[in-house]
Amino acid sequence: MNVPEIFDSLAYGPAPESAAEAQAWLEKHKAKFGHFIDGAFTKPAKGFPTKNPANGAHLAAISQGTDKDVTAAVKAARKAQPKWAALTGHQRARYLYALARLLQKHARLFAVLETLDNGKPIRESRDIDIPLAQRHFYYHAGMAQLAPTELPDRAPLGVAGQIIPWNFPLLMLAWKVAPALAMGNTVVLKPAEYTSLTALLFAEITQEAGLPAGVFNIVTGDGATGEALVGAEVDKLAFTGSTAVGRRIREATAGRSIPLTLELGGKSPYIVFEDADIDSAVEGLVDAIWFNQGQVCCAGSRLLVQEGIADTFHTKLKARMDGLRIGDPLDKCIDVGAIVDPAQLKTITDMVANNTEGETYQPATTLPEGCFYPPTLITGLAPSARLMQEEIFGPVLVSCTFRTPEEAIALANNTRYGLAATLWSENINLALHVAPQLAAGVVWVNGTNMFDAAAGFGGVRESGFGREGGWEGLLAYSRPAKPAKPGKTPAPFEGDGGPADPLDRTAKMFIGGKQARPDSGYSTAIHGPKGDLLGHVGTGSRKDIRNAVEAAAKATGWAKSSAHLRAQILFYLAENLSARADEFANRIKALTGKSGASEVEASISRLFAYAAWADKLDGAAKPVPMRGTALALNEPCGVIGALCSPAQPLLGLVSAIGPAVAMGNRIVACPSEPFPLIATDFYQILDTSDVPPGVVNIVTGPHADLAKTLSEHMEVDSLWNFSSPDLTAPIEKAAAGNLKRTLSLFPDWTDPATEGREMLAAATEIKTVWIPYGV
Fold first, then answer.
1. By the 8 A CB rule, do 719 and 711 touch?
2. 297 catalytic residue (yes or no)
């Protein structure tokens, strides 16, 4: 090609990045790696090869971790943890700062090694992944410094087990390791089978930084090694990967009281309105889907474009696809690199080949040898089409159209996932109208795939739960330094009736703002401590829970109501309870044989506390390195099921209802099993306090039966177990069905430590909305 032709086509020439430094590092280790345990590499063991997906070249042999290896790593971490936690925040900050500096020092080596192992273009590794990994350690060095003064009431969890994926090998390591170390935890990391090399290089720089032995450990291997880590004696588990594996982890850890962070799959919507900057939106798609081969769980792989501009947008998008360069990922002029492994390539190929809907467009290009797949656009799909619903995890974009903003929101939320969403509009009012209504943990406005250590990241629905990054990430790796006092569980009184009792006509529940007879046709007789009959309550059934959840699901207006309104109604509840304080105190004494005056007063105070919090739990503007801001917004979880404390029947009920409704949730509350009559009195208070129908629903009955139904119900978003530790394991196992959040807590509810941010955190999801600004 001559000079005039070059200026006419503006074609790029090859610009290869040298792999010499990375190859020298591999040769230094004889291309064989053991695990990294207690500050040193172990002798390489039998394992598997890791290959360059672009050409199939052998890179190194990786050891297959066994149960014994995992046990050794956890033991080393356990031994090191007390001394690491005992360091001052400043001392831990210096180690994290040293790691950040060493990541900068060896940035080129990390970038090349990442591209060799993963197949992504060197531009992605060099310009995005490695700088972001550095940013995480710098940011969390500051967090470690500030934690003693800014989070004085938090303590480390202990040993954190962490499992990371192959799409962002080093960045996911930094995302998890930095906050864990900042808060005084030690770590056992299991990198992805396909992409372990940059994690092993990071282990080497921890030696250079002088990190104490055992603080950071790596065990490499396949899924069996991950299972061994999940089953190990760790105090925290953090996993990023597929929804299917995340569900198995939730089931495997059921009942073990291990805090979980699950960042799982996604089918993220990419919404383009007709007033959008079309060229920018097209370029954003190229960045989201094709520059990283679509191997990003939050990539906007589901394009929703407004009908009026659909033809124009698709024409421009196809023209841009035609210009994408596919080839050697180490070439700096390459746009689309290699798929990480032949198995993943086959999955992508089969999913597209088996599709019979819509129109498929692929540029006319010759693919290089290796694990490559062409950029692909499939238009004209129905929202229910398999490729619109299932995660492909490859350079494949699927598309449909919409007419109105309301239809766009409905289509965007028509998925079981909820990781991220992107929207493009030059109308800020429209953008800020749509963003809060999208079921996603992260929303990008006029941009995409923006990440930062200061901004929380994580999903809702079957995209997992928990947040990484920012203050939220520190909370995920810590616990209250002074837990609430444990409560006592009273035994049911002898002489209580069972579910075989015919329905007493006075036995009713509270569903959808009205009293409702139990569908089961049965009631339970409630006796006092001396055996005297006090009344009857309905025996709730599966259908009663269904009706209560349906009523709660319809009360969506509560989540949209102002925080001021929610505060007013909670204050009003407290006022009406105060007016009947003596009556409730007498009822508690009749039920329990103990004075109820102090419990009523504590209940009134707790309602005041959550009324106070309703309009004061604010979000935050995150100082992300961009011309714009990332807003962390507190949003309600949705429909919460709550099994209330058996002791303190009124206070236990109020302590569940208060934080849930204060934050805009709707609740299905199952009151104290031995003392449920107090709830039949309390729904009279609800009835006279302007609580909208469906916001608070009360279903009485055996907690074991009700827990099963609530935990299996796909429309219940979170389940709180304050009833019995025996119910924790079955609840957490069944909750894996839709990966709903769960909380098991058994304190003395009179303890003020049960009040405040801990319960409010359980009642909220954090949504991060990225808003660029300027011209």
1. yes
2. yes
